[in-house]
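Pipeline run #58 for the internal structure catalog. This entry was flagged by the ingest filter as a single-chain record with no existing model, so it goes straight to prediction. Upstream metadata was stripped on purpose; only the residue string is passed forward. Reviewer on rotation: M.T. Logging verbosity set to normal.
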Amino acid sequence: MDLLNFLKNNVVAATGCTEPIAVAYAVSLAYHALFQDQITIDMNNNFKFTKEVPSIKLDNLKMIKIEVDQNVYKNAYNAIIPGTDGLKGIEVAAALALYLNPKDKLNIFNNIEKPNLERIQKILNDKIIKVSYIEEPVDKNLLKIYVTLQYMHHEKLRKSKVKVHEKHDNVVEIKVDGKNLYNSSKDHIDAQRNQLSLNLKEILKLVEIANGSILEEVNKGILMNLKIADEGLNNQYGLNIAKSLKLLFDEEGCSFSIISEIRTKVAAAGDARMGGSNLPVMTSSGSGNMGITAIIPVVIMGKRKDIPINKIQRAVLLSHIITSIADNYHGHLSLLCGAAIKAGFGVAAAIAYLLDGSYSQIHNAINLMAANNVGFLCDGAKPGCALKVSTAAGIATECALMALENNTINSDNGIIFENPDDTLKGIGNICQAMDPLNKKIIKLLEKSDRN
């Protein structure tokens, strides 16, 4: 495995919830494409536009049609858009995208200007953004976003289409008036995924020989996610879960507990990210909440135990790799909470490794996490996700510590297999089998939103 390439594709910065980000990215591309004869890609996989893109004239905008898979619809439905004073949802993301630059990709919400918040009200009031979810179940929970934009330009109705598949920024097609301006030439994601399996001995060898440039990349995520945790602790965001936990732990005299500190700081990062902070988060396998969960507990444990920074960085790298393996087996988006059933496995294994756990103890940390945490439903992205990431991080830490005490979970316990790779694959089967329940959750989201 090329670790630098792995990090480039699986551990990237994003500002805000990644599902509305992906929608905004696709809509922004669709608008920019209208004015191009050709679109190319530079060495960094950024789209290059040869012609100037004019500022949008709202009277010329006729329609934006957005079709997404059920998981994207669910996750974007109540997600707060950064820098908007609490505005949320797919329609807001799409309207704002007309004023944003697709070169920013997953950080497209970085520079939202206040005047544009007033301008998008006309788009929202005119109800020209049509959002729907794809009815049929998506194979292996694959992400899908289809955008169609209609716009009058030089007295001619132009139509652009953008398709995004599998990953939030993986554009596979751009068309204008039926002409292909871009088609993905190869399915590089499948090639990357096929390299991933939970061969712990080989993974640990890779982690141990990771060089300076790889660890420097890992460290960027450490610094980024600790910064947003501080932001959440020091300011008011979302449901302020971290502040409530801190008060509770202080009152009960357990605030110095390592699990209390981990739960509080992970919740703080979740509060800020899901509550509209403009600060970026380093994601893991496409999710900021998974990035928060995969990184922060490992770093807190390492600092508490005075472990050298290089060992902490290697442990975080291990956390990302195992999170990615779980993501491969379970689907990029699913009905189960990724912080629990993906990043939770990564951080349990990483903490066991960090504290000099044996090969079998690291394996057992993963299985303990599976026995403990597999029921977490994903009911969409929203400020309350801070509760789930905090809980997942606390349980993962407990599982790692129990594994180090040789508390073993055997294969006669529920869906646990002796080999944790088989355990994760089994959970992947459950994720796919539960896919039809997404519609039920979506209906409940829509019903509760109307109350």
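catalog note: The chain has a mean pLDDT of 93.
catalog note: Residues 14-189 form one domain.
status: ready for reviewer M.T.
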